[in-house]
Design brief:
Chain lengths: ~240, ~300
């Protein structure tokens, strides 16, 4: 279980402090698939980074399974069981897909084990396992590899920052299938997805609307979805084409 | 028979991935003297009469054979210049592994300057691997100044892998190649310098005849206060294709000078160069840290990948 208690976060732009998250509290229970939606610039990505430890809150505490992790580094949080899928996956010259999966798993992986993770994200493993994670991969391919590395971690809590960003519609359909499968196999872990895609909101247990640095609404999918359909917080897949 | 002590064996492992005497032809040189040699029906190795080096003759049509010519220096204060000439027969397909390991625990400099000349026959294929390695904590420097000259006949191809990752204090490497019709040269250089090391790497590749091609890619990392200069020049004198790439990671207080250059003397010479120097991106470190690595481990993974 993840508890965010009275979290505030400020950034320094041009010498002036600007608070972009204000006294935010949120609890994500075990086995829950929670989607955080809301307008752009509302603080969603910042919140994801605060949970992963990439950013540190200016006030408040972050508690994972009863342990205060607020002051832990990115590495320590990863070791405590937090996984983080970047909105813009990072490229590495020379590092192969299998190496990244091995690092993610934290143990030696056989080729067939590594292939299983790739198959789960719909990549033909044989073609990808020894590819470099460099600019030769498309946005959709990188995104799937990013998800495969996160899956290989078998984490207590996984945070996805806008998994749909930067991919084409065809890949998007496949991505939804991957998330539906992850939802079914959630077991003891929990997931936080930053997204305003209706298809992802559709498989959420709980939905939070983050706007202006505050959780403005929170509830079960059944409560929330009817309120959000048709707003910018629940876009259909084609909205980007309109 | 080859007799090597433990230090020499360790050096051999580093430079040639060899744990014992290899199959095929070889010539081991240890502390400026011959330590072992083997020839095969197709590959002959002969000492030059003036004692300045060896001639390696590979018969035409020799396929799937290899030649190893490792050199190790484990005494302090040695300085040597060695000429090795390779005559690769037509239509052959061979692997040549060279390399030099220096262990210097003393106070005097140790230096090995290997001059390798390759005469690659028509339609022959050569894979050449050269690794340089230094170890030992003496004050004496470990110096390597290799010169590689390649003369390629029609339709021949050569792939060169040049690696210098650790422990060489000073190096000045020069590679010169001349390619005839449809000959192709591929070079993959990997270089890492640390401490106050200096490394200069110069390439001059002449594409002399129609259909010749060269692809030279250097990846390097300069750590601590080390200095690197990479100077890769391709000259196109005919309809040909040339590509150079110098891609470097700079760390600490390192200095990198990348000087790729192209020279065309024919309207159908198609030449491209790329050069990039940058530090390890913060987001790369963050990504690997979110996978559970420490910052230090993340940095090592990025370096290992880059130099792989």
């Amino acid at each position: 279980m993840l508890e965010l208690k009275n979290i505030s976060f400020s950034v320094n732009t041009d010498g002036t402090e600007k608070e972009i998250i204000h006294n935010l509290s949120l609890t994500v229970e075990d086995k829950k698939f929670v989607v955080i939606t809301g307008p752009n610039g509302g603080g969603k990505s910042s919140l994801a980074k605060l949970i992963a430890g990439v950013e540190k809150p200016t006030a408040g505490r972050i508690i994972l399974d009863g342990k205060d992790i607020t002051d832990l580094s990115i590495t320590e949080r990863a070791q405590e069981g937090i996984a983080f899928a970047f909105q813009q996956p990072v490229r590495f010259k020379g590092i192969q897909v299998i190496t990244l999966l091995r690092i993610a798993a934290g143990k030696p992986l056989s080729v067939s084990e590594a292939c299983n993770y790739l198959s789960e994200v719909g990549l033909c493993a044989r073609d990808y396992i020894h590819r470099e994670v460099n600019a030769s991969l498309s946005g959709g391919e990188l995104k799937r590899i990013e998800i495969a590395t996160v899956m290989a971690r078998h984490s207590r809590l996984t945070v996805f920052d806008e998994p749909e960003a930067g991919i084409d519609l065809w890949s998007f359909q496949n991505l939804i299938r991957i998330f539906e499968a992850m939802r079914v196999n959630i077991q003891d872990s929990s997931m936080i997805i930053i997204s305003h895609q209706e298809r992802i909101l559709n498989i959420a247990d709980e939905i939070a609307v983050l706007a202006n640095g505050r959780i403005e609404q929170f509830g079960t999918r059944e409560e929330m979805l009817p309120k959000l359909i048709g707003t910018s917080s629940a876009q259909d897949a084609c909205s980007r084409l309109k | 028979m080859v007799k090597l002590d433990e230090i020499q064996k360790r050096l051999i492992r580093e430079i040639a991935d060899l744990h014992e005497v290899p199959a095929g032809a070889y010539n081991f040189r240890a502390n400026s003297a011959l330590a072992g040699r083997n020839t095969t029906a197709n590959i002959d190795i002969i000492s030059k009469e003036d004692g300045s080096g060896i001639d390696i003759h590979i018969k035409p049509g020799t396929v799937h054979e290899s030649v190893h010519i490792p050199v190790v220096l484990s005494e302090s204060g040695l300085k040597e210049t060695v000429y090795n000439d390779f005559f690769v027969g037509e239509d052959s397909d061979v692997v040549i592994v060279a390399g030099c390991g220096i262990d210097n625990c003393g106070s005097q400099d140790s230096e090995h300057d290997g001059i390798h000349r390759f005469y690659v026959g028509k339609n022959a294929k050569v894979k050449y691997v050269e690794k340089h390695y230094g170890s030992g904590d003496g004050q004496g420097k470990r110096i390597l100044n290799p010169v590689t000259e390649v003369y390629m006949e029609e339709g021949s191809s050569m792939e060169m892998e040049m690696v210098q990752i650790k422990g060489v204090d000073s190096t000045e490497r020069t590679t010169i190649a001349e390619l005839k019709k449809k000959a192709s040269l591929v070079v993959r250089e990997r270089l890492m310098t640390h401490g106050s090391q200096r490394a200069l790497s110069v390439y001059k590749v002449l594409l002399q005849e129609e259909g010749s091609s060269a692809d030279i890619v250097s990846r390097s990392i300069a750590r601590d206060r080390s200095y690197q200069k990479l100077d890769a020049c391709i000259v196109g004198n005919a309809p040909c294709k040339g590509h150079t790439e110098c891609d470097s990671i700079i760390m600490d207080e390192g200095t990198i000078l990348a000087v790729p250059s192209l020279e065309a003397h024919h309207v159908d010479a198609s030449l491209v160069h790329e050069a990039a120097i940058g530090k390890i991106a913060g987001e790369q470190l963050v990504k690997l840290m979110t996978l559970g690595l420490t910052e230090k481990e993340a940095e090592e993974e990025i370096i290992n990948g880059f130099l792989a």
